[in-house]
Amino acid sequence: YRVAVGIDYIHDLGDLTKGIGFGADQVGPFAGLALALESGWTVISLLQHYTSISGVDVNLTAARLIALQSFGDGWWLKLDAKLPYDWENNTIPTEAEIQTGKNINTRVALYVDGRVGLGSDRLYDWGVGLGLRFNY
Asked: Structural domain of residue 45, as residue ranges?
C-alpha cells in the first residue's frame, strides 16, 4: 500500500444563473491509502475536505473510493465515487465520475471527465469537464 496526500485546486468557470459551477474557487486537501491490485487496478480510499477561497461559501467533507487503471503511453482511466457532507447546507450531494487522461510529461497531465449527481441532494444531474493536472 501507499499513502496518498495532496491538495486539489478548483477554479470555478461556471455560471450559477445557468446552474453551472459552484460559484467559488476552492482548495481540497486530501489523505488516503492506495492499494495496487494484481489486476493492474489501484484502489484508493480517500478523505477530502473542500473549502472556498473566493465566491460563495463551500465547506464539504467527502469520503471517496477511487479505482485507477494505467495504460501504455501515459493514458489512464479513473472511476470515482464521492460521498460528501455539505456542512453549509446539511446535505449529502453524492456523485460519481469517470475520467480518462494522458500524462503529457512527468509533471503535466490533461484529462476529460464525465460525472453524474446521485440522490435527492445532488448538486447537478450530469456534467463534463476538462482538466489540467500538475504532478509533484
From this structure: 2-134
| CA–CA separation, 40 and 100 (whole Å) | 16
CATH number at residue 36: 2.40.160.40
Q: How many domains does the chain have?
A: 1
Return d(Cα 97, Cα 35) in angstroms, integer: 20
Cα–Cα distance between 100 and 90 in angstroms, integer?
Answer: 32
Closest CA to 133 of 115, 106, 98: 106
**Within 10 A of 102 (CB to CB), how many other CB atoms are there?**
14
* pLDDT tens-digit series, residues 45-87: 999 999 999 988 999 999 999 999 999 899 999 999 999 999 9
- Distance of alpha carbon 34 from the chain centroid: 16
Conformation bin of residue 56: beta by default, left when phi > 0, alpha when psi is -120 to 50: beta
- Among 65, 64, 81, 75, which Cα is nearest to 110's? 75
Residue written as cell 463534463?
A: 128
- Residue 37 pLDDT: 96
Does this model's pTM top 0.85? My answer is: no
